[in-house]
Amino acid sequence: MNAPSNAVVNAKPRGRQFFNNPGPTNIPDRVLRAMDRPVLDFMSDEFMAIHHACHAGVKRVLKTDQSLYMYNASGHGAWEAALANLFAAGDSVLIVETGYFSLSWAEMAVNLGIKVETFAADWRRGADVKKLAERLAKDKAHEIKAVLCVHNETATGMVLPVSDIRRALDEAKHPALLLSDTISSLASIDYKMDAWGIDVTVGGSQKGLMLPTGMSFTGVSNKALDVARRNKAPRHYFHWELMNGRAPQKFMGTAPVHMFFGLQESLRMLEEEGLDAVFARHARLAEATRAAVRAWGANGKGPQLYCQSPDRLSNSVTTVLMPEGVSSDPMRKAAIDRFNLSLGGGLGPLMGKVFRIGHMGDLNEPMLLGALATTELAMKAAGVPFSPGVNAAIDSLSS
Ligand code: PLP
């Protein structure tokens, strides 16, 4: 028998991969081209102008006039920056459970010696903010130094009303800081750091900002900066005061100039489209996705929406619950191996039980419809029962 030729062994599917993970996301050609340029001295005036534009642009997206610190790190780095600057071992924080990412942030806090109380919540319905308000009102001694929450839980496809948590803190006259992770909502779902009274916002590059993974940042309120100044806990790489001392870049180490080239372009794209139009596009594509999922499960036997709170459905990611006893893994494997469609898997206890359709960042109607149709193809290939849903998505988009 003849050995297979290299052409067969290395055969790659033609055409573009449809990338519908909820992060990282598609990097637009414009961003790739903006990054395809020679390096610059990160102390040069030319780079400083780009750096300045990026700082101002990210603050506009966060809707804050307060401070911003950027890191050579993925979102985990910004999580750690928030914790390391504000808390010392033994301090207490309350984390609002939303799903896998809230628990991961809590785990990080525990590993840093912080005492973590988890405000438990049903992952499919979301936290009960009224009960949270009661818990905060009970903390008369103000032992809770901060409330930590994830604005958009990427594992469950659910949004948390963080402005309601600020209201609960204010009504209880509780001085705790409010920290919020906007990693999978930034530039996809409206977020108003200052208006919502957020003290620290954690963001990352690889989702709504449409950049490669590797840069993250924290928006920091004046109140949080004050707390950080008084915090004697050891820290270095993420130390906001040390970073202030490294003006004008305020960057620890070598600034990743190519990430800034990309960021400047992605900010231009977001502002050309207009942030409100960006949010409306995400809402439209998310609603179409949900229409398809509802149709898939309409006969009671197919996949269904994981999130059971209609007012908290995420516009950047949809988590789809598989029918009882059917794993999502063979379907996702068929999607990527046979049809070149990348879908997100379940995280933590949801592994195999759900799959996730990312619809954030650089995405339009044909890309989404292609992904939904191909998901149906993969479900057929893997023997997953479902009713057709693409027409429901088309109806949603055309209504
Ligand atoms: N928080 C949320 C909501 C996320 O979705 C992610 C990653 O997907 C993270 C935090 C962690 O970010 P990173 O993977 O960039 O470290």
Bound molecules: pyridoxal-5'-phosphate
User: So how many helices?
Assistant: 14
Content of β-strand = 15-25%
CATH-defined superfamily of the largest domain: Type I PLP-dependent aspartate aminotransferase-like (Major domain)
Task: Offer a few descriptive terms.
alpha/beta; Aspartate Aminotransferase, domain 2; Aspartate Aminotransferase, domain 1; 7-stranded mixed beta sheet; 5-stranded mixed beta sheet; 14 helices; 14 strands; binds pyridoxal-5'-phosphate
Overview of the molecule:
The protein has 399 residues and is of the alpha/beta class. It folds into two domains: 29-271, Type I PLP-dependent aspartate aminotransferase-like (Major domain) (Aspartate Aminotransferase, domain 2, 3-Layer(aba) Sandwich), CATH 3.40.640.10; 274-398, Aspartate Aminotransferase, domain 1 (Alpha-Beta Complex), CATH 3.90.1150. The protein is built from 14 helices and 14 strands. The protein has a seven-stranded mixed sheet with strand order 2-10-9-8-5-3-4, sandwiched between helices. A five-stranded mixed sheet has the order 1-13-14-12-11, with helices on both faces. A two-stranded antiparallel ribbon has the order 6-7. Strand 3 (92-96), helix 5 (100-111) and strand 4 (115-119) form a beta-alpha-beta unit. Helix 3 crosses helix 10 (257-273), helix 6 runs parallel beside helix 7 (162-171) and helix 12 packs across helix 13. The N and C termini lie far apart (57 Å). The mean pLDDT is 96. It binds pyridoxal-5'-phosphate.
Briefly summarize what is shown:
This protein is an alpha/beta fold. The protein has 14 helices and 14 strands. Strand 13 and strand 14 (354-358) form a beta hairpin.
